[in-house]
């Protein structure tokens, strides 16, 4: 089977013949949808065929890594934008699960619920990109992070984007009204223009934030790596997937490398956020702050210098009292070989009261 499709704005034909995507079987002029010219080998588990086995392994790894990142974000109790950033990782987790179900064949393409799962996958992808873009504004303090206003703005707007993408997807798959699965212009704009636009806005906002507010530019390396990994993953999937598949004898295709690059990109976003947020140790839970001890410089010529530390621990508002600080030294707080007579003890007390520690 050969195709002569070329990349056209608003059409999935060339893209779907290059890489296997969840929406491709639901698009095109015929009933079987659009098929890639080369895709990764299937494996048989029981009586079922599992597609994209290598990519599913990456999805499982991504789920574990996402749980770890969510745990670390939630553990930074006083970090700026903690609750907002964790929403992004929740949406990424949901997107991975839906990708796992749709691309693997666990939900058969012929199932009546398959279009709705694909629409949910596309909707969660757009909501995730939107949520990340909103996180880019948190550092500018347009509103106080962690408040009900901010959190509900994130939730409701992300839900709105999810609903919009879900409706466009179902309307395209079912050809409702002017929506057409042979020319899915709305789906194309949302997936290939709106989503990258949100990511680009986030990156630009973070570059401006780091340059204008931080003393060091190391976090720019993290956000740059995130952008590079994302671009590489998209290029491999959309333009090189069939060539990779042919070269590696159908063992993997561009979906495998695209999932790896997406995971690396999300991990670098987490690394970037972690590098620019500082936790207030005073209010952190389970954290151990630095303990600072300031000692006064003592005069080495002072004959009472060896006892200054003991005297300092027993100062009261009325002056200095020599407590029974160490029972092994005869209960006087002095080494045995240097125990003073009562007259000398009185002189020492007067000395500290008048010179070293004047009364309050």
TrEMBL record:
UniProt-annotated stretches for the region Disordered: 333-360
Alphabetized Pfam families for the sequence: Chs7
One BP annotation, GO: protein folding
Leader sequence segment: none
Membrane topology of this protein: Multi-pass membrane protein
Biased composition (Low complexity): 334-360
Top-level taxonomic group: Eukaryota
Keywords: Cell wall biogenesis/degradation, Endoplasmic reticulum, Membrane, Protein transport, Transmembrane, Transmembrane helix, Transport
Transmembrane segments: 49-73, 85-109, 116-140, 152-173, 185-211, 217-240, 252-273
MF-aspect GO terms: unfolded protein binding
InterPro entries (alphabetical): Chs7
Localization (cell): Endomembrane system; Endoplasmic reticulum membrane
GO cellular component: endoplasmic reticulum membrane
Protein family membership: Belongs to the CHS7 family.
Name this protein carries in UniProt: Chitin synthase export chaperone
């Amino acid at each position: 089977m050969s195709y002569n499709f070329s990349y056209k704005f608003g059409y999935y034909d060339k893209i779907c013949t290059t890489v296997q995507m969840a929406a491709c079987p639901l698009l095109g002029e015929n009933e079987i949808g659009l098929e890639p010219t080369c895709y990764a080998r299937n494996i048989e588990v029981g009586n079922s065929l599992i597609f994209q086995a290598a990519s599913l392994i990456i999805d499982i790894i991504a789920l574990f890594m996402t749980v770890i990142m969510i745990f670390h974000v939630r553990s930074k109790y006083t970090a700026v934008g903690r609750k907002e950033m964790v929403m992004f990782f929740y949406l990424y987790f949901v997107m991975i699960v839906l990708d796992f179900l749709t691309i693997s064949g666990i939900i058969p393409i012929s199932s009546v619920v398959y279009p709705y799962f694909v629409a949910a996958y596309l909707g969660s992808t757009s909501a995730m990109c939107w949520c990340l873009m909103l996180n880019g504004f948190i550092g500018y303090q347009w509103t106080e992070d962690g408040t009900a206003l901010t959190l509900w703005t994130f939730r409701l707007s992300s839900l709105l984007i999810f609903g919009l993408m879900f409706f466009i997807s179902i309307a395209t798959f079912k050809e409702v009204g002017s929506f057409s699965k042979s020319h899915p212009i709305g789906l194309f704009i949302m997936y290939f223009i709106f989503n990258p636009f949100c990511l680009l806005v986030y990156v630009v906002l973070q570059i401006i934030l780091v340059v204008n507010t931080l003393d060091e530019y190391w976090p720019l390396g993290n956000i740059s790596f995130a952008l590079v990994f994302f671009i590489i993953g998209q290029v491999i999937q959309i333009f090189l997937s069939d060539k990779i598949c042919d070269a590696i004898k159908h063992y993997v295709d561009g979906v495998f490398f695209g999932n790896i690059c997406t995971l690396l990109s999300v991990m670098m976003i987490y690394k970037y956020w972690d590098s620019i947020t500082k936790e207030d140790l005073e209010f952190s839970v389970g954290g151990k702050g630095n303990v600072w001890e300031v000692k006064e410089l003592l005069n080495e010529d002072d004959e009472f210098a060896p006892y200054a530390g003991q005297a300092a621990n027993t100062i009261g508002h009325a002056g200095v009292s020599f407590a029974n600080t160490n029972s092994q030294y005869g209960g006087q707080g002095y080494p045995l070989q240097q125990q003073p007579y009562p007259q000398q003890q009185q002189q020492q007390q007067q000395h500290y009261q008048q010179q070293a520690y004047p009364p309050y």
